[in-house]
Amino acid sequence: MNKEFQTELTKRMEAAKHMKEEDKLYRYNGLLYPTIMCSPENLKALETFEAREDDVMLAAYPKCGFNWMIRVLHKIVAAATGRTDENPNDHPKFPPMLEFLDPAKQKTLAVAPSPRVVGTHMPPQNFPKSFFEKKTKVELNSTCHMTLPVNEQIQFSIVTERCVTICLCLQFPWGSYFDHALAWEEHMDNPNVMVVTYEYLKENLSEAVQQIASFFNCSLSEEQIQTITQESTFKAMRENSKNSHGPMNNVFFRKGEVGDWKNHFSEAQSQEMDAKFEQFLAGTKLGAQLQYDVYCK
């Protein structure tokens, strides 16, 4: 995250404190977005955004490891292309997600050199159509611990007890986790979609880096893979987060522990999540890959 975006994000968070609750979210094409980050003008302009076949695209529901993985992707692309990790697209002013880009920044991204590293919290049906028309490869980051409470500045003062319920319903930025997951279930057989779980990254980071690089046609030496792995452990990322994310570092990089949800869920909330997982994802390919019974019970 570049310093300009850090400053802008801090300013917007401060402005959000003075907004009415009903003004903090709005709906666009059936999906809720946070007003302070994603203006309607941004989303309207994205409808005609031109994807490229060699774009490196990351999709993840909020708090499913996006900020960790986008840094890993930047490092992979930097190593494969010889660019600097700090400025992988040669345009340091880009926010991390497409929906955060205003129309002017979208035009700048349109002429950025390939491969471009881009990300989004949007489900596939809300993507710019060109990403599927150009058969752009997409990495989907998913996890079992998707409903952990987040810094209240970002989640609009949602308290822990309400976090689970809101994540399960539609009245939440970018919709419910389960709707997001089911939308991607339809793409599980798409060869241009790669699913990587947070839990797999934690346990097999070196192997994951190699697989992700291969998926995006980024040729890396064994030495490069090991260097990226060492620099991309959650511990290393978090220790560097003051430089990469400034005063927002504790918002984006929490504990990074598999199973940390147990410290926040009540027994009733855990049972509610089990029931919803059974209702929506039991028997699905994505559900099997998440290994819910292993990591989330």
Automatic annotation (TrEMBL):
Its EC number is 2.8.2.-. Keywords: Transferase. GO terms for molecular function: sulfotransferase activity. InterPro entries: P-loop_NTPase (IPR027417), Sulfotransferase_dom (IPR000863). It is an enzyme of class 2 (transferase). Residues 54-138, 169-284 form the Sulfotransferase domain. The keyword Cell membrane does not apply. It comes from the Eukaryota. Coiled coil: none annotated. Transmembrane segments: none annotated. Belongs to the sulfotransferase 1 family. This is Sulfotransferase. It comes from Atractosteus spatula (Alligator gar). The lineage of its organism: Eukaryota, Metazoa, Chordata, Craniata, Vertebrata. The gene is Sult6b1_6.
